[in-house]
Known about the structure:
There is one protein chain. By secondary structure, this protein is α/β, with parallel strands linked by helices. It is about 35% helix and about 15% strand. It is built from six helices and nine strands, in the order βαββαβαβαβαββαβ. The protein has helices at about 15-20, 50-60, 75-90, 105-120, 135-145, 180-195; strands at about 10, 30, 40-45, 65-70, 95-105, 125-130, 155, 175, 205-210. Helix 1 (about 15-20) links the parallel strand 1 (about 10) and strand 2. The longest helix is centred in the last third of the chain and has 16 residues, at about 180-195. The radius of gyration is 19 Å and the shape is elongated. About 40% of the residues are buried. The model has no long low-confidence stretch (mean pLDDT about 90).
Amino acid sequence: AQAALDGVIASSMAADALTAIRGDQLPLVMLDSDPAGSLGGATVNLDIADGVRQVTEHLLGLGHRRFLHLAADIASWTFEVRAHELATRLAGTPGTSLRTVRAPISIDAARTAAETALAAQDPRPTAIICDDDKLAAGAYKAVRRLGLRIPDDISVTGLDDLALATAIDPELTTVRLDAELFGERGMQALLAVLEGREPEEGDIPVQLVVRGSTAPPSAP
């Protein structure tokens, strides 16, 4: 690999595979990765922490205080950031409660996890914050299997703004990540490293897109 490649761009979830192909020779850019543990390479990140803050502020502003976090069951820095920011923000708001359940990123797994959590929790959460739009789609199925309505009984949010977000009904409130710019910045960073320049600093901004899946909580 070292003879055939000029450099490597990898995501945080590929970190364990890097040592086999990179050694300590190839220039490296890590995407969606902890700057403090990026294997000595440059990092390019989306501002995921701000995305979670935007979601949380939106739901708190609507009046929600009981939350279910449907978290991705993946050991990755990006998902640790989501959990940390959500817990930190809610800890600073009196009267809030947060329960976290984990599921693989698939619609069926998310449905099972969300349905079990909603059936067991009393009082029921009024909002489900999902790490990913696919998890949110699973949450939709769970809510409907329990005879509840979105957003009348429970609000649901995602993160990614995949095409799926506008294919489900009601359309999903989620955080838009500019994937094209993310890839562009990653390539620009690698070119900078190869040319001996410092890559551009600063996380890529993200944007909350409010749609029909969130509303004020209904009266108890």
